[in-house]
């Protein structure tokens, strides 16, 4: 029994918890991308930088609060800064929309043009971020870093293997679930949410039934900004804030959105977790897990790793290619969409 | 055309007038990926030549002049042509260079060996050059990358770590260093539980941390960069409770790492290129600025050539190539930067010298710098120097 527990603790410590935390960060990011895609009908390449900008605002507010010695121990100060940062991020998105995207909506630009425009916006954002805060790596988390540490867990349970849970991981997972819940409630049960879904399903019909398109666009950007700030800040809390990394995050985020089916919110969330876990499961060395659960004669000598971590990045893209080959509209697509 | 002819006549005339001139070729990448590094390197080599000329005691008062040529750092063809030109058209007696490992190998194999010309490179660090056939003509004042691997393995063994995990940043530097650590450590009967690469700037390192943790080991060697993946892996391993102690090679030594991770890093140790020899400080005073990369090594490369010539009393490569190791190593009087004139006098009177120079030169093996390394111990969330080797 102890052996089985030890094996499960290893899986929980090295796969389950990090995967859930990274997966929720990706899911929040993919949700933002998918929302812009379904309402505004373009792939927002600038979303990674929107996340970075949101995280930057959170960091700036965190510093400001710290300088006034406001804190909410044992939670990180960043949580307190989040609402304020969201407001700034929403302003940024709306300014961008009014000054740039609105024109392309008016001339009914091709999706390809939109993508190029958003690439341009991405570069402007990343320049803006580096101008304001610089390219360096910065620590966002403060307060209590761990819920419990690996050593404490070992002493408490008497098991050989330790389990560490970071405050940032718990916050990531729980706030992702809350945010997703609120978003679905909003889309399903409020008038604005319903009009957004209508607009996304059929623009012309929505316009005919008297839905104000500018209002839908406005709400869409505000929700996107909230999701991006949340995703960026949670990522920054869990790891650290480094502007360059957010551009790299764009790839797994888009992979997650596409795997789940572009434009499908449930798909985006599931896609986020698929991408996060596939990397971990395939490159994990199962030697110690197997040593615990198998009889001694069958215990492996090698590391029993399917793939070296060198191929980690390839894993999510193999999944992406497979999904595009077998079910091009994503695993959550309905036939009629 | 007229001007060109005149220039040609003048140059022919002038080179005829000072027959005792010794010419040394400087083949560095004045264009290409390291073009920002090479001007101060070449200036340092020329400074050594001027110092020797000014002393008036080099080969009965001969002057040494430099002829520069462009190695491009990456284009082997261009570097070989440049070396050909220096040897056949300019009549140089030896080569200071080349700089990057690839072009250095090309010049050595295609030109220097064919013409029997001594080459001393200040900056080629590829391990491949250690065992390469060179007819005793090639030397370098930079250590081989393999040397750091050996030093790392030696330190691990001395501290009693027999089983370690290893992760490296996925580029030439990381891979080369990881290979060197692995082969040295295994030859000392150490065991490496896993060798895994990590990419820089990725969003998440849980997979690497997980694989390393499962392989286990007494310590984790992180051959990466302190501000990027290396830091994330150390942080992740500490958070998951899989490793407590880390070995930090050169790329991981810097103030920002212990500052970011804090007291959890205490007890980890590492190594970085560095010397406590007074030569480096003296060289910086001579240059009047902080020394850039390979500047001291360039001065030393030029100095070694001229000292060997003086010791052999000949500018022919066949004669003085045998003297390079003698002047570079003990026994003899220690020679620091700015003391080349003194060294020339000692050698002229039949004495012995041990050239230390700016980079604490000690040639080992087939004629490469042993390299000098600073041992680092992290304590009180700060890097502290605990010794040199």
Mind explaining what this structure looks like?
The complex is a heterodimer of chains A (337) and B (389). With 337 residues, chain A is mainly alpha-helical. Chain A has a single domain, classed as Orthogonal Bundle (ABC transporter involved in vitamin B12 uptake, BtuC), CATH 1.10.3470. Chain A is 73% helix and 1% strand. Chain A has 13 helices and two strands. In chain A, strands 1-2 form a two-stranded antiparallel sheet. In chain A, α2 (47-67) packs parallel to α4. The N and C termini of chain A lie far apart (49 Å). With 389 residues, chain B is of the alpha/beta class. Chain B folds into two domains: 2-142 and 294-328 and 337-343, 3-Layer(aba) Sandwich (Rossmann fold); 146-274 and 371-388, Rossmann fold (3-Layer(aba) Sandwich), CATH 3.40.50.2300. Chain B has 14 helices and 16 strands. Chain B has a seven-stranded mixed β-sheet, sandwiched between helices. In chain B, α4 links the parallel β3 and β4. Chain B is elongated and about 70 Å long. The termini of chain B are far apart. Classes of the chains: A mainly alpha (337), B alpha/beta (389). The interface between A and B is large, with 42 and 31 residues.
Q: Decide which structural class fits the backbone of chain B.
A: alpha/beta
Assembly level: heterodimer
CA-atom Rg of chain B in angstroms: 23 Å
Distance between the termini of chain B: 59 Å
Following the backbone from N to C, one meets helices and strands of chain B in this order, namely HEHEHEHEEHEHEHEHEHEHHHHEHEEEEE
The CATH topology of the largest domain in chain B = Rossmann fold
Query: How much of the polypeptide of chain B forms β-strand, as a percent range?
Result: 15-25%
Q: What form of chain A results from the Cα inertia axes?
A: globular
- How many beta-strand elements of chain B? 16
Q: Can you identify the CATH class of the largest domain in chain B?
A: Alpha Beta
**How far apart, in Å, are the first and last alpha carbons of chain A?**
49 Å
CATH class of chain A equals Mainly Alpha
Average pLDDT, all residues of chain B:
88
Which shape of chain B, going by the Cα principal axes?
elongated
Overall helicity of chain A:
over 70%
Which structural class do you get from the secondary structure elements of chain A? mainly alpha
Number of domains of chain B: 2
Task: Note poorly predicted spans of chain B.
Answer: 8-19
Gross CATH architecture of the largest domain in chain B = 3-Layer(aba) Sandwich
Could you tell me the radius of gyration of chain A in angstroms? 22 Å
């Amino acid at each position: 029994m102890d052996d089985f527990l030890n094996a499960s603790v290893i899986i929980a410590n090295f796969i389950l918890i990090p995967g859930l935390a990274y997966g929720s960060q990706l899911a929040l990011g993919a949700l933002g991308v998918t929302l812009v895609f379904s309402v505004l009908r373009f792939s927002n390449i600038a979303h990674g930088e929107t996340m970075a900008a949101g995280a930057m605002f959170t960091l700036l507010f965190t510093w400001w609060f710290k300088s006034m010695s406001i804190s909410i121990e044992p939670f990180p100060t960043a949580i307190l800064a989040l609402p304020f940062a969201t407001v700034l991020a929403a302003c940024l998105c709306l300014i961008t929309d009014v000054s740039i995207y609105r024109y392309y909506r008016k001339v009914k630009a091709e999706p390809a043009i939109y993508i190029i425009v958003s690439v341009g916006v991405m570069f402007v954002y990343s320049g803006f971020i580096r101008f304001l805060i610089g390219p360096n790596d910065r620590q966002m988390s403060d307060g209590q870093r761990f819920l419990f540490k690996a050593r404490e867990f070992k002493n408490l349970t008497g098991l050989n293997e330790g389990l560490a849970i970071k405050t940032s991981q718990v916050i990531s997972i729980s706030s992702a679930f809350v945010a997703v819940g609120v978003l679905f409630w909003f889309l399903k049960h409020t008038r604005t949410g319903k009009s957004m879904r209508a607009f996304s399903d059929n623009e012309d019909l929505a316009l005919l039934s008297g839905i104000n398109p500018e209002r839908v666009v406005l709400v869409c950007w505000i929700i996107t900004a909230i999701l991006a700030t949340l995703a960026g800040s949670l990522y920054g809390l869990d790891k650290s804030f480094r502007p360059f990394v957010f551009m790299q995050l764009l790839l797994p985020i888009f992979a997650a959105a596409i795997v789940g089916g572009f434009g499908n919110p449930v798909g985006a969330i599931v896609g986020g977790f698929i991408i996060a876990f596939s990397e971990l499961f395939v490159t994990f060395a199962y030697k110690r897990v197997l040593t615990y659960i198998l009889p001694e004669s069958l215990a492996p000598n090698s590391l029993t790793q399917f793939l070296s971590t060198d191929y980690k990045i390839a894993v999510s893209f193999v999944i992406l290619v497979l999904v595009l080959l077998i079910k091009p509209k994503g695993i959550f697509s309905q036939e009629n969409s | 055309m007229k001007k060109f002819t005149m220039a040609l006549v003048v140059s022919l005339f002038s080179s005829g007038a000072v027959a005792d001139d010794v010419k040394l070729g400087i083949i560095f990448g004045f264009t290409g990926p390291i073009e920002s590094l090479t001007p101060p390197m070449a200036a340092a080599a020329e400074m050594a030549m001027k110092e020797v000329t000014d002393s008036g005691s080099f080969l009965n008062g001969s002057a040494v002049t430099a002829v520069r040529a462009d190695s491009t750092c990456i284009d082997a063809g261009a570097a070989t042509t440049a070396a050909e030109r220096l040897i056949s058209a300019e009549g140089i007696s030896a080569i200071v260079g080349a700089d990057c490992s690839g072009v250095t190998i090309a010049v050595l194999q295609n030109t220097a060996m064919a013409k029997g010309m001594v080459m001393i490179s200040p900056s080629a660090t590829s391990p491949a050059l250690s065992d390469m056939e060179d007819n005793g003509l090639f030397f370098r004042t930079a250590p081989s990358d393999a040397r750091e691997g050996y030093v790392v393995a030696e330190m691990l063994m001395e501290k009693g770590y027999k089983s370690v995990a290893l992760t490296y940043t996925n580029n030439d530097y990381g891979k080369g260093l990881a290979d060197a650590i692995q082969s040295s450590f295994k030859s000392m009967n150490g065991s490496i539980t896993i060798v895994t690469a990590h990419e820089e700037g990725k969003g998440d390192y849980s997979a690497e941390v997980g694989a390393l943790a499962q392989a286990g080991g007494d310590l984790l060697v992180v051959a990466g960069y302190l501000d990027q993946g290396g830091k994330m892996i150390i942080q992740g391993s500490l958070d998951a409770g899989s490793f407590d102690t880390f070995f930090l090679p050169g790329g991981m030594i810097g103030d920002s790492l212990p500052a970011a991770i804090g007291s959890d890093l205490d007890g980890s140790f590492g190594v970085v290129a560095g010397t406590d020899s007074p030569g480096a400080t003296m060289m910086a005073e001579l240059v009047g600025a902080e020394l850039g990369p390979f500047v001291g090594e360039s001065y030393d490369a030029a100095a070694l050539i001229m000292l060997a010539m003086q010791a052999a009393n000949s500018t022919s490569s066949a004669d003085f190539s045998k003297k390079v190791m003698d002047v570079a190593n003990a026994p003899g009087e220690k020679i620091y930067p700015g003391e080349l004139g003194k060294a020339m006098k000692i050698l002229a009177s039949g004495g012995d010298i041990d050239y230390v120079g700016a980079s604490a030169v000690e040639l080992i093996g087939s004629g490469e710098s042993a390299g000098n390394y600073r041992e680092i111990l992290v304590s009180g969330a700060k890097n502290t120097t605990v010794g040199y080797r």
